[in-house]
Design goal:
The structure is a homodimer.
Chain A lengths: L1 H10 L1 E2 L5 E2 L7 E2 L1 H15 L8 E5 L4 H11 L2 E5 L11 E7 L6 E7 L8 E9 L3 H13 L2 E10 L5 H8 L4 E12 L2 E6 L2 E4 L4
Parallel strand pairs in A: 4-5, 4-8, 8-9, 9-10
Antiparallel strand pairs in A: 1-2, 6-7, 10-11, 10-12
């Protein structure tokens, strides 16, 4: 997705330690028009030939933006996993644990069991695919619900952190995994390139 | 906004203690089409006659959804205040404290000083106007930045918690405050009605 790659090149700031700051357009300040295009691009790449998507699943907070615009493109509801329990969370929840790379803490994702069922055909959408920890937790929740996983989409992939391999090992069956941009690192340099769309298969 | 009110009446669940659960369409599972309409409705009500809106400001997590669709309608960038610091937050930040009613804890909002300046004309958007604590903290951040506050919009207002009065006391000058739906409580009953748009003035 060329417009995204140009924005990353223009506005990304490298902090070292393979961390690229994109908070001017993606995950603090947000370019609303670009985010709309991102949702359309993710849905185009992951649109199933068969049964339509019924739910887009993500985790709060930064995943909410591309997940909402993808759900608008798919014309379905979206769910964002909560990271803490509030007073209003009185129902039964699926839970799964993840580790945040940039926050260095463990978090638990909560999804109300009423909203994800075996009848659902789900796209998982996140802003980053890095270590794969958050997406793995979301795949785990889809599996707990007995729902169908139709695809996984991310805005930016960091192939050096091998999240794609982590997720592949967990997949119950082949599943398309799409990123719109890839970032590579080499000492003090970084490059932004076109993302990848590949059907990942469970490894033996 | 009639479609919103009908959805609240159909899907809202009353938990007692003046708490109405709307997590099937607003703040856990999200109706993406309704959220698009909400953004357009908030922008229509708050669109300034003069200088255009340059930023929509909200706080993570549940405010992100109506703020993003409002920013799409206003064709500008949005900012969501972060609630915790991550490794990538290396710049200078405006901060303000708020108290969550449903989580019963204090939170600090962080906004990068690069993204909000005296040149900005800002709409604050949140999902709920209840005690007014979150919106007050966001007004405080707009004031710290020396930016212009063009209006405040919320999806659901709970007038019994007097947040509108709390915010009014803090306003530096008259400011339109819009809600799309109001919820009232009376013992074990609740009603959802049309929201309010009123220019609030700083009280003496």
């Amino acid at each position: 997705m060329q417009k995204l790659i140009e924005t990353i090149r223009a506005e990304g700031r490298y902090l070292g330690d393979s961390i690229l700051k994109v908070d001017s357009f993606l995950n603090h300040q947000v370019d609303a028009g670009l985010m709309t295009d991102i949702g359309q691009a993710l849905f185009e790449r992951l649109k199933p030939a068969g049964a339509p998507i019924t739910k887009v699943l993500t985790a709060e907070a930064s995943g909410i933006l591309p997940a909402l615009t993808t759900a608008v493109a798919a014309d379905c509801r979206m769910i964002y996993a909560r990271k803490s329990r509030s007073k209003t969370m009185v129902d039964s929840f699926y839970t799964a644990d993840a580790v945040s790379r940039t926050r260095a803490n463990a978090v638990t994702f909560y999804v109300n069991q009423q909203f994800l069922t075996p009848e659902d055909n789900v796209l998982i959408i996140e802003d980053f695919l890095a270590t794969g920890s958050s997406i793995s937790a979301l795949v785990n929740i889809v599996q707990q619900a007995g729902a169908q996983l139709a695809g996984i989409g991310t805005v930016i992939e960091k192939p050096s952190e091998k999240g794609r391999e982590v997720i592949s090992r967990q997949l119950p069956q082949p599943c398309p995994v799409a990123s719109l941009a890839c970032i590579g690192f080499d000492d003090d340099n970084w490059v932004a390139e076109l993302g990848r769309l590949q059907v990942e298969r469970p490894s033996a």
